[in-house]
């Protein structure tokens, strides 16, 4: 459907004597090939920057399943650096390659390959980098992902990326004039609604005045004033959207949505992801309980009490940004215990969490059931927990750690 509609629209453009030199679109090659063969033989293609950055992020999320230390915040920061590297070197394949090659070193706190134009640690010695990756295997896999974007053909694509934000804005205007919830496609008003959206995109709200004057309808004082106010509001909003504060706010709102989705998945499981509905199990067989196998093909591993450690974490909530407030662990065979109270990074403990854990945080002091307890920073507590675990290490085998919800919000 999409190649047919694009070809039809561009054919009308060609019939009006206009020539199109370049199309900005996603990775769909079918539409581009069809238009180039049938209409514009010299047509060139520019990829949409947002789609490229999103695909780059998807590759990083695939690494997250293997490298647990790669957090969502780290991935968002890497995507932002990747996007800046493309935007600041637009049209220069050499500049893009230099920036992208330096990105793995920058994320591992090595700045010898960075440029002072975008690397804050080089400009300010007192600047403390917050997003730092660790791990030899993660570094190797991250560099492999970057290498996929620094080959000659991909660099040529990145050097000429464009944005489809203007198209998305146009789609939004059309949707305001002709909502999808109403079937305007079968009415005669659809052409006028789309034409009104095009006029608003090109001329602003002043098109209303021009239409009235063309038809001999003198627009009144209120119409003049209303159109001027709407155009001024649109202009101010466009400037505001480009400000640093608004960009930061959009990032915060996106982080809140991701955190909320993560909390919902804790309770409900995954509801949206690629191939989430694909399953090898037939629907009619879901209700049937399979019989117990006569013999087990594999002998389950027998864990002895001497190599089992049970631990639990208390946090300020269920979100990915929740802070640890307590670490407790027990070595089953020896009976040795560990109990650490942690100062929350967020600086407070919500009432809902306090009602469950009995922990409160006031004035930099942690209380349990209204009694002050000794608490340390999260970094100190995790190091102490690590040393405590290493004390039960064995040269021949690794101890088994057992916990609750350790694959979700309580994963350390």
Automatic annotation (TrEMBL):
Mutator-like transposase domain span: 1-119
Domain of life: Eukaryota
Sections of the chain in a coiled coil: none
InterPro entries: Mutator_transp_dom, RNaseH-like_sf, RNaseH_sf
Name of the featured protein: Mutator-like transposase domain-containing protein
Organism: Mya arenaria (Soft-shell clam)
Lineage, opening ranks: Eukaryota, Metazoa, Spiralia, Lophotrochozoa, Mollusca
